[in-house]
Amino acid sequence: MNVLPAIAYRWGAVRIVAAAALMLLFCGSSGPAGISAQTAQDKPIQHQVTVSVKLVQVYVTGKGGVPVTDLTPADFEVFDNGKSYPVTHFEKHFLETGEAVVATSASPEIEAPLNRRFFLVFDFAFMDPKAMLRAKSAALKFLDGELQPTDEIGVVSYQVGRGLVLNEYLTTDHARVRSIVEGFGAKTRAGRAENLTQFIYSSDLPILGTDTRATDQGAAVDVNSQFYEDQARSQAGQGIGSAGRQNYVEQARQLMIALGQMAKVLRGVPGFKNIILFSGGIARQYLYGKRGGATLGEWTSPEQLAAQLSTYDGSQASASLRDDHSAMIKEFKASNCPVYTIDVSRERTEGDVQTMTGVSGAGLREFEGEDSLRQIASGTGGRFYAKTMAEERVVEDIQGSTSAYYVIGYEVAETYDGKFHKIKVAVKRKGVDVTTQGGYYGAKPFKEFSRFEKLMHVVDIALSETPELQVPFDIPVSALPLTVKGWSQALVFARASEAVLAEVLGDKAEAYLLVVDDKGDVASIKRFTLPPLATGRETLFPSFLLPAKPGRYSCRVVLRNLETGRAARGGAPLFVLPEKVAVLVLDPPLLLSSDAKSAELAAAAGSSVASLFGYDPNAYAPLMGAVAAGTDNLQAALRIQGGAASTGLTVTATLVDLAASARAELPVTVIRQTDDGPTRLIVADLATGGLKAGRYALECVAKEPASGESSVASVEFIVK
Q1: What percentage of the chain reaches a pLDDT higher than 70?
Q2: Does the model's pTM come out above 0.90?
Q3: 560, 461 contact by CB (below 8 A)
Q4: Can you list the alpha helix ranges (DSSP code H) found in 291-390?
């Protein structure tokens, strides 16, 4: 059975109990823009940990629905599949009173509190352009409401021709979420998650029955204009014919199936995931049938019979659509996703009824989607908001109903069988109402993941501050700006240790690179498959070389086993200077370490670190991490572009003690020199005379005495 090492996983509502939580914060406080540099060595690995902590959100209210705020861990009883478990973790979240989170000392393995999570879901297929504006307005009001800095928000949209789009994964960067919502229907502003999902789908995960062409995010995406025409006619109370009905029903089924898939994936995210669905709903007559139905009467011509049959068929409910609708509701409920449905369809007036031949005010309801939205809300534990309700009241109600809760945790053995566990929480106080999750799904082997689950898996690892589906290995990453054949490029590479090779790579693995600019937008995504590593190799250096415009970036490298799902990730900052005309250009020096047991794999031929810097990969490898105190010699690889072909080029090196601001010139001995077209590649030995602990910079100068041209570049490092 293909089971992932338990120490690295947080499944369902779990965080695995492990002393070594190998975690790198991707994006500062919220996720988009600030990947911190990582130079630490890989941490030791522990195995055979099979106990996990299940986290459960609990709402407790008294008379009049007022939250009960003074409960303690001793007041709660929790049952998992009927078996009682002691409470080992406890949090209190009462936003209105400002009470801080309180965690029990018995749960130090829980790194962060279980915050509120919201997904803004826009059903653009079943709303007209005016409804889209109402949906945007309501969503922006929600974002402007009393959100907490720790609230995590994701954005999902469904569009005809594109299917379900993950615009942005859970993030605390509310400003970024706002900019994405504002961009709907205007100039495309894709979220980081949408960039990544489009890239993955275009390469190897096509969505069945959808068009993956890049299109505008708004509701007016015209890849299936007939559907929009049929939808408008249906909601106006006009007949759309059998073909139009079939098209409408099929699009509705695709929406239900897609949302059901989303719900299944969210099983792995702990706690309640509050879904705020903006939609016009599915026309009542297609889900439940037309009230009173239709009968076949006398007919005197084939045309009259055909008309009667069309009317009769149009009044019947679609059993398959109703089944898919019910299945979707069950999936959201099982995944602990209460759905707050907001009806954004236009309000009907007396004038509307008067313009529709043969349609009464009561009959008009057959073409509205209110009933479908009500059923979704009631079936998942959410709430329905009519189109007549003021946006401010909607926001206030959602905020209020999700702002006061407890989090309790209990330890249970992880089985990796993917089965549903029923949860019951009782409170030892009379006269209170308890609302909690109905249960959770246990972890399951990666090979049993659906395609959409595998997509969400890599999105979670790549973009989340604290991934819910897995705690990945932490690997060091470096990013260097280079000039390659006159063009500004970025070289990004990672170091995978022997432990990572054993746990992650295997026979089938892949490497991803995400480059995020200082605005939080994805500037580039690269991917390549990693072949099995040759025997005798203890470390691997996967690398990417790509064009880079001037600016500040954050780079993320993700390695993932395609059979087990085991993953590693790391990040580093990148600063590309504005281009300037120079006769001589020296790229940042690359420090080397003696290493005969490493291997290098590059996304493209000629883009490995060794080929770009000219060192022997069987003798050296990039130095990633601290230099050992007492080191007498450093090896550095240099890239020099331009200048005359004469041999008059000189290279000098200076060691700068950053703490003392002391400078010392180092003797330079050239070990190897090769030419790659206009680029001179030099490997040099630098006599340091024994380094003491501290922070240093190696400053190198390349100079051509004949012309007087020179170029300076440096690299910082730590000595321990």
Answers
A1: 74
A2: no
A3: yes
A4: 302-315, 319-334, 350-354, 370-380
